[in-house]
Amino acid sequence: MRSRLCLTHHPQLSQLDALVRHFSPPIPDYRLVTQFSRLLLHHIPSIPTEEAEKQKSIDLKQNNQGKNRINLQKSGEISDETPEIPLLQALTHEIRTPLTTIRTMTRLLLRNKELTPQMLKLLEVIDQECSEQIDRMELIFRATELNHQHQDLKTRHLVSTSLQEVLQQSIPRWKKQAKRRNVILDVVVPQKLPQVVSDPGMLDQVLTGLIEKFTRSFADGGQISLQATTAGHQLKLQFSTESQCPHNALKSLGKLLMFHPDTGSLSLNLDVTKHLFHELGGKLTVRQRSQHGEVFTIFLPLRHRESEIKSQKSEVRSQK
Hints:
Layout: H1 2-8, H2 13-22, H3 30-42, H4 50-60, H5 63-75, H6 84-110, H7 117-149, E1 159-161, H8 163-179, E2 183-188, E3 196-198, H9 200-217, E4 222-231, E5 234-243, E6 251-253, E7 257-260, E8 265-268, H10 270-279, E9 283-290, E10 293-301, H11 303-319
Parallel strand pairs: 2-4
Antiparallel strand pairs: 1-3, 4-5, 5-10, 6-7, 7-8, 9-10
Helix pairs in contact: 6-7, 7-9, 8-9
């Protein structure tokens, strides 16, 4: 309207400008936007689970059609693969590619010696955030790959792994990650830890993913306690979480992912996470400590246990 009045040099243009200034809309409080987003996420319609979809497909089909489908599956003419896994693999690749480019350019800028301390700090934050997201996408990609191919994969080659080195390299990074989200990470680890049998690269990746899951699930801050002890022929790594507000139920996104309504974060569901630790030669147990906390306990086989098993096998062979 103002543009039209301005083109015609209307005498009431100044009066219109005065009215607009008098009734200009106030800038909304950012907390209203945040609250609206959380309420919107809480009211997302439930996504059907795998069991519900299977039951629905069974109800819609006649007995004869079901028998024909089973016969076709046996002959290899129909695949049971859902589009979820290829879609997740494609999405993780598409997300990692631009983030890798941004991280590379950021690290090139960090080499500039003329940058101010404030600019250096901002670039370091960008680099850290990109690295964390790339690692998350890489973990989701590997989880989908293992979930899709676990029946065809051979046993993963596990080697002697220094958990001490893994923790020494990862704990400073985890503390920075937690601090950025107002989470306290308390670590109680002995100075010397026995070696375990696992995959060191993937173990670090999965543990980092677990820390990421904890820190992103706390809407208003919290605390994570990490303890490492030996338990018989296993090493026990225990994560205890305590949040400032009660845990809300997560929403399932298909077979692999969970969605946290309060924070908008995605994480691997519990079954997939347990399967990852199983691939690493370990075992994960989870129990609800209270309405505000959980306890994740990871058991990893000790190195000498592997030697005992090998010696027992060699003795049996020699007796034969």
